[in-house]
Amino acid sequence: MSNDWFRFREFLIRQERSAMKVGTDGVLLGAWVDCDKRNRIMDVGTGTGLVALMLTQRNHHALITAIEIDPEAANQARENVNASPWADRVEVSQGDFLVWVTADHKFDLIICNPPFFTRSLKNPDIQRSVARHDDGLPLASLMAKSTKLLESSGNLALILPADRVSEALDTASANSLHLHRRTDVRGKVDAPVKRSLLQWGKEPLAPEISELVIETGQRGVYSDEYRRLTEAFYLP
Length: 236
Prior knowledge:
This protein has helices spanning 24-32, 50-58, 71-82, 126-132, 139-149, 165-174, 224-230, and strands at 5-7, 12-14, 40-44, 63-68, 90-94, 107-112, 150-161, 178-188, 193-201, 208-215. With 236 residues, it is an alpha/beta fold. The protein has one domain (5-230): 3-Layer(aba) Sandwich (Rossmann fold).
C-alpha cells in the first residue's frame, strides 16, 4: 500500500505528500466503527482523508470534519475529498485538534487512528515523526479533548496497538467514557493480538467483545470475516 495512490471502489486516495500512507489500520477502523445514525463526525489526524471518506461512503447524511495538523497532508486530504463524490459533506481543517474550538455544535462520533509510538527512536523526517509519535497528541489529551467535544450520546473510536489497550481503558474510565465495543485483531489465527479496535460512549452499556483474524494460514489470503468487513471498499 505504499504507492503514490490507492484506488478504492468509490474513491481514490493520493498520498505522495502525506507522511502516513493508506494502511490496514485505517481501513479496519473506517470499516469497523459504528457510524450509523451519526449526524456530525470528526476524524482526528485525517492524514490522506481515508477514514473520513470511508465514513462518508457508509453514512449517507453525516457531515464530517477532518482535522490534520500537517499542512501538506491537510492539502492532500482536501484534494482527495474534492475529487470524491462527497465533497459537499466533508470539511478538511488544518490545525491542532487539542486547541480546536467549535462554537456551534458538538459531535456524535469522534474517530482517530492516532500516532502511538511513545519511546521509540524518532524518524529524522519531521513530518513522518509527527504522524507516528504521540508527543503532539498524547492519548490522555486526545481522550480528554474528545470528551468535551462529544454530545451526551456521542462515541469515541480508536485503533491501538495491543500493548496500549490497558492504558486506553484506564484513561477512558478516568474521562467517564464507557466501553461499548472492542474487537481484538490478529494477523492470522495463531498470531498474537496485534491491534484492538475500541469504541466508547458517555452512556454505560454492556460492551460487545469480539475478535477478528485478517489472514488465513496462507500469506495474502484473507479470512471470510475480513473480506466481509472491507468488501465495500477494496476492489475485487
